[in-house]
Amino acid sequence: MQRKTFIRIGATIAAGSVVKPLTSWSQTARLKNWAGNVTYSTGNVQYPKSVTEVQQLVKKLDKLKTLGTRHCFNTIADSNRDLVSTRDLNKVVSLDTKAKTVTVESGIKYGELAPYLHKHGYALANLASLPHISVGGSITTATHGSGIKNGNLSSAVNGLEVVTADGSVVNFSKHKDASTLNAVTVGLGAIGVITKVTLDVIPTFMVRQRVFTNMLLAQVKQNFEKIVSAGYSVSLFTNWVNDNVSEVWIKSRTDEKDHTEAEFYGAKAATKNLHPVIAQSAEKCTDQMGVPGIWYERLPHFKMGFTPSTGKELQSEYFVPLQHAVEAISAISRLGKQISPHLFITEIRTIAADELWMSPCYRQTSVTIHFTWKPETAAVMKLLPIIDRELAPFNARPHWGKVFTMSPKTIASRYAKLDDFKKIAATYDPKGKFRNAFLDKNIFSVI
Ligand SMILES: Cc1cc2nc3c(=O)[nH]c(=O)nc-3n(C[C@H](O)[C@H](O)[C@H](O)COP(=O)(O)OP(=O)(O)OC[C@H]3O[C@@H](n4cnc5c(N)ncnc54)[C@H](O)[C@@H]3O)c2cc1C
To answer: Which residue's C-alpha comes closest to atom 20 of ligand 1?
Structure first.
């Protein structure tokens, strides 16, 4: 079906004629997001294979949203008019060993890019929990991994090529104009269709992963910064029962300290590979037990060829300034009895501050409290306002790509650069071609 659709677009574009009225394609089965909780509001999906094709589509369409790998849990990627997928924009364009950057088409998945980089002696500084996601979708939503000294994935952006509302190609670069790049990188899909991304790379490295089980929450609270600084990337998993953290995952570069100890702040070294949700098979998880592996086979929790996480779930996540980590964790742990029946697992991570205007880590090193919920939408939607209220004293910011109920006014009050962002978005998209109901509500309606 998708292939047929492309052949039709390709044929009409090649003939230089007007693309058939898009409403005639609305018979196409509507796509869902990865989790299946969002069915996109249109069946009109186009799959350009080149920047020129993206330009032609953008010129032609009055309203559209770009689709990456569809891993967001909310309607940020939805459109009731047209979707332009980056599925076929998936190539490595060039590796600049002098500048230490790689340029890729925006639809490439991290899991596809990483082996290429390693083969050439390079790495990305960090990855999210899964490698299945597109570079374009990830950087525009401030997707992150963990590590108190590691910025989110958007902080590796060195340049962007974007097709803006009038169909022109605009290049943003750290070298030429870092402040504009900071403004548009976490662009939430509102600046245009990102067609190419240039990312900073570092020399390749090896990582070992060790897991410790059952750490008392009291230990976490007492030693939070020491615990999350114990490795290159550290994650704490809890379901908020028994006042403990069920698993602590420490990912260390092999040139750093290896945590071979039998106990780590009272938690016991695991004796086999584990899944963050202890009842699930560790088969889909990256290798643990201190076995060294290439950075991209250890930094994500989940392997490329397998379904990540639990499969049927919802996700929410809140960013809190690091200095409030312990208070925020305490506030959520007080809700433990309410939360845990609807939860698969919570993950607590840290992310370094950045300069990206719409990043939840803008000028604040943050702790994130993430919830992998059971697919119980009604119950989750009742819990989220309670979590919002408990985290309000710490000015929590929700993850742009996950489920949240925080009011647009509250979100606006927590983004110092929101008004400037709206202005710059309007410069590249004066008529709101790339806006949808999500952006209108959460970003553009707030005065
Ligand atoms: C199992 C699972 C685990 C996850 N783990 C993490 C994690 O560890 N850390 C984390 O931070 N998040 C995580 N996420 C959330 C998710 O990965 C991110 O939110 C990310 O946005 C997904 O990228 P995507 O390509 O799927 O984006 P999509 O959902 O396809 O799109 C997201 C947004 O980006 C825009 N967009 C996409 N591509 C482009 C482009 N080329 N140009 C302009 N705009 C574009 C869309 O219009 C939309 O607004 C997880 C999600 C799942 C399902």
So the answer is: 138
